[in-house]
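// run 5 | inverse folding | seed 20
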């Protein structure tokens, strides 16, 4: 669903993709050049938009709603 992706900023989409690849908040912060607390805030905001909380439920909903696809996870992480 392409329309679902419009609900998320570019940064939120990057975070969702990196979470799906198994990166920690600290790893994501380093990759995106943010502090760890900023990543946590973004993850909470993503969860609210999806109506869930927690990393697992965010990823589950992101896959169900086709916000992220398995083939998206094969892309390089470095910006």
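// decoded
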């Amino acid at each position: 669903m392409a329309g679902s992706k419009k609900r998320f900023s570019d940064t939120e989409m990057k975070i969702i993709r990196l979470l799906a690849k198994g990166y920690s908040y600290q790893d994501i912060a380093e990759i995106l050049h943010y502090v760890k607390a900023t990543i946590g805030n973004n993850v909470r905001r993503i969860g609210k938009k999806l109506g869930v909380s927690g990393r697992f439920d965010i990823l589950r909903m992101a896959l169900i709603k086709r916000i992220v696809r398995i083939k998206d996870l094969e892309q390089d992480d470095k910006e």
